Amino acid sequence: MSTTGRLFGLGVGPGDPELITLKALRHLRAAPVVAHFAARGKAGNALTIIERYLAPEQIVQPLIYPVTTENLPPPFCYETALATFYDESAAIVAAHLDAGRDVAVVCEGDPFLYGSFMYVHDRLADRYETEVTPGVCAMLACASVVGTPLVYRNQTLTVLSGVLPAEELKRRLADTESAAIMKLGSNFAKVRSVIEELGLLDRAHYVERATMGNQRIAPLSSIDPASVPYFAMILVPGARWAA
Ligand SMILES: C[S@@+](CC[C@H](N)C(=O)[O-])C[C@H]1O[C@@H](n2cnc3c(N)ncnc32)[C@H](O)[C@@H]1O
């Protein structure tokens, strides 16, 4: 019989602590170890969302990103730094599992949608019993706070990373009826010019920190690019369907 712990990937929703599922909450409360990703010096959104649900005896295991921007000057390589970090994070989690402790890795939104848990999952899921609990993703939280349906009938929704080059964003946006553009931050100005070039400015919505205490919704044209955080998104909903 196996004595190793079980690995749980828990989606904890987009920000509002009430948007965690009953199942994720049950697994969270039962886990002796709760691991979370965060930038250096910050608690991180996932921990902030679930902190209130933790008991004092639970071990909180931070996994701290070495870098938080993809635009690193040479000789640094973002991909190499991240791959090493995910190897090390997986080893930290595996040490708890080998000691027989279940580990819940909490993930803002859904774990399998651009979630850092994916990289731990890729490294450990074939070695340990693993269960993933989906979460309310940020894209859907943004649609709900803006109050806009995303896709009608047979429309296509494209999920894009704002890190992509302008030409690629333009090509993909031109070929879809509805889009969510994530990972804004310093990519905002580039993304907005593409949207403007395609004549989509009037249909686009800007949402920052949806469902969190400091949520901001504003017209795209009014946004100062220097003020845009990483936790922001642009939605271009599908045109309303009228029979
Ligand atoms: C690494 S991805 C994580 C996505 C998450 N796993 C999900 O299911 O939504 C981070 C990106 O998600 C978006 N995001 C996450 N939470 C958000 C929120 N509360 N409001 C707006 N955008 C958010 C931002 O575009 C951010 O750059």
Automatic annotation (TrEMBL):
Coiled coil: none annotated. It catalyses: precorrin-2 + S-adenosyl-L-methionine = precorrin-3A + S-adenosyl-L-homocysteine + H(+). It holds the Pfam family TP_methylase. Belongs to the precorrin methyltransferase family. One of its GO terms (biological process) is methylation. The lineage of its organism: Bacteria, Pseudomonadati, Pseudomonadota, Betaproteobacteria, Rhodocyclales. InterPro entries: 4pyrrol_Mease (IPR000878), 4pyrrol_Methylase_sf (IPR035996), 4pyrrole_Mease_sub1 (IPR014777), 4pyrrole_Mease_sub2 (IPR014776), CobI/CbiL (IPR012382), CobI/CbiL/CobIJ_dom (IPR006364). Keywords: Cobalamin biosynthesis, Methyltransferase, S-adenosyl-L-methionine, Transferase. Residues 7-218 form the Tetrapyrrole methylase domain. Pathway: Cofactor biosynthesis; adenosylcobalamin biosynthesis. This is Precorrin-2 C(20)-methyltransferase.
